Amino acid sequence: MAVTVKTFASASEAAGALSSDRSARYLGGGTLVMRALNEGDVSISTIVRAQDQALTRIEASGPRVTLGASVTFARILAERDLSFLHAPARSIGGPAVRNMGTVGGNLFAPNPYGDFTVALLALDATVAVQGGFGSRDIGIEEFLQARDRQAGTLVLSISCTRPASVEAFRYRKIARIKPKGGSVITLAAHLPISGGRIAGARIALGSMAPTQIRARAAERALEGRSLDAATIAAAASAATEGTSPSDNALGSAWYRREIVGVHLRRLLSGQE
Amino acid sequence: MSKIPLQFRHNGREVAIFVDGGTNLLVALRELIGDMTPKFGCGQGGCGTCSVMIDGELHLSCLTLAETVTGRSVETLDGMKQGPNLHPLQRAFADNFAAQCGYCTPGMLMAAKALLDRNPSPSRDEVIEAISGNICRCTGYEPIINAILAVAGGRVSA
Ligand SMILES: Cc1cc2nc3c(=O)[nH]c(=O)nc-3n(C[C@H](O)[C@H](O)[C@H](O)COP(=O)(O)OP(=O)(O)OC[C@H]3O[C@@H](n4cnc5c(N)ncnc54)[C@H](O)[C@@H]3O)c2cc1C
Ligand code: FES
Ligand code: FES
Questions:
Q1: Domains by residue range for chain A, with CATH
Q2: Is B60 in the pocket of ligand 2 (CB under 6 A)?
Q3: For chain B, where do the domains classified as CATH 3.10.20.30 start and end?
Q4: Looking at the whole model, is its pTM more than 0.80?
């Protein structure tokens, strides 16, 4: 079925068009939207596009990093100043998907996708959105909790603070097929260290709930401690708390619960 | 619903077509331009046989909204041969038995070309990574990897 495609020069015009039409869908890289259209998804009658340069901007020189919503994973991989995001970017799709898929689209990608968003959740990113009401910044956690209700808002950019060191940010995606494959589970940890102790631990999990979630019990087990074997063991055994994984073709909920602690332990202890 | 005019460069030649809203680039290439080299495998991004290059970057044509290539350059397997001669990658695929049914071959060749354009002497792991979005259901991957490495190693002359 043919759909109407509306292309706008500015993000604000596109946001206006999105907020006024319930059946409109924004086109990022299109890797999921076009899939839906190819399948004959009749809930989409209008496609909204924005050709605003601001959406493709990367600001990565300072301590605060901002990625326009239309920035692709291939561009992140080409940016040396974004090396802390290379592991999550590289873990997505094959080369063509990385050339097409965007950071903004990843925020909406359902399980088993949304790997990059797991990294952004651990990094406590801020999402800049524009709706009919104007633009505002939302914490990524709040954004994800209300994701189903975000239809009609345009994501403009995502920003986060650069981790203090390479060890302070870790990422691990468990897939059955390598180098490309959907996530069985995805984990990311931000472990800022202050005076030899963890201060402000954030652990994020993908495919362990309907959206990416924080493993708060594991975070509590790490907080204020040094990253030693006992602390790691305590965090790993708390990893399933608050999770609600599902069965899918890549793994059962039971399997996910069994392995999440194992992989969190490996992530925290720096094992391959 | 009215048709949308669309102009872009197809293997170096300017083309102009009319598409329905929501048409993907694979359909536009095959049904409106008559270039049958990009194949339809899944329409889901999963198989890679529809791979083309847009402004020199590997893209999946089935997941590309046709209108987004306005004013851009699209290269397909059809543009790969050099006059009457096969491209070195095509020769290497033939010499190394890298195609059995051949359905995956257009995508494999585009993915390989995208790699070699950027990195003329890739490692085996880089070749594997480069074709990781392309599924082959019958040759098996080894002859394909070897064919690409043969070109990279310069054993197949241009
Ligand atoms: C073969 C294949 C393999 C894949 N592998 C992975 C993988 O390993 N890991 C992974 O995480 N994902 C994977 N994906 C899923 C997808 O490619 C990525 O999640 C990608 O980041 C989605 O981005 P997009 O720009 O293509 O999204 P689109 O398809 O353009 O959009 C997806 C959704 O987000 C909305 N949206 C997009 N941008 C915005 C915006 N700026 N504001 C508001 N709404 C917006 C759209 O309206 C739509 O609902 C894969 C997809 C395919 C086809
Ligand atoms: S047809 Fe495009 S990836 Fe399969
Ligand atoms: S040669 Fe048959 S699918 Fe690859």
A1: 4-50 (no CATH), 53-161 (3.30.465.10), 169-268 (3.30.390.50)
A2: yes
A3: 3-77
A4: yes
CA pair distance B60, B9, nearest whole angstrom: 17
Residue B44 burial by CB count (10 A; 0-12/13-18/19+): exposed, middle or buried? middle
Local confidence band at B155 (pLDDT 50, 70, 90 cut-offs) = low
Mutation target among B30, B68, B75, B123 for the A interface, most CBs of A within 10 A = B68
> What is the spatial distance between Cα A118 and Cα A147, in angstroms, rounded to a whole number?
14
Tokens representing B36?
């049958």
- The predicted complex's ipTM stands at 0.95
Enter the tokens of residue B64: 């590309």
Residues paired with residue A99 on neighbouring β-strands, in sequence order: none
Q: Are B53 and B39 in contact (CB under 8 A)?
A: no
CA angle at B93 for the pair B87 and B97, rounded to the nearest 5° = 155
**First-to-final CA distance of chain A:** 48
Give the gap in angstroms from C-alpha A67 to the nearest C-alpha of chain B.
21
Q: What percent of chain A has pLDDT over 90?
A: 92
CB within 8 Å of A267: residues ≥ 6 apart:
A170, A171, A172, A187, A189
Which positions ≥6 away from B125 have C-beta within 8 Å?
Answer: none
The domain B88-152 having CATH identifier 3.40.50.11030: the answer here is: no
Task: Give A179's contacts in chain B (Cβ within 8 Å).
Answer: 128-129, 132
| Integer CA distances (angstroms), A211 to A69, A186, B16, in order | 19, 12, 43
A249 touches chain B (CB under 8 A): no
CA dist B92 to A103, B109, B114, B129, Å? 37, 10, 16, 19
- Listed in sequence order, the DSSP H helices in B57-140 are 88-95, 105-118, 124-130
Verify whether the Cβ–Cβ distance B21 to A4 is below 8 Å: yes
A156/A52 Cα distance (integer angstroms): 10
CATH 3.10.20.30 fits B3-77, yes or no: yes
Residue ranges, comma separated, of all CATH 1.10.150.120 domains in chain B are: 88-152
Which residues of chain A fall short of a pLDDT of 70?
1
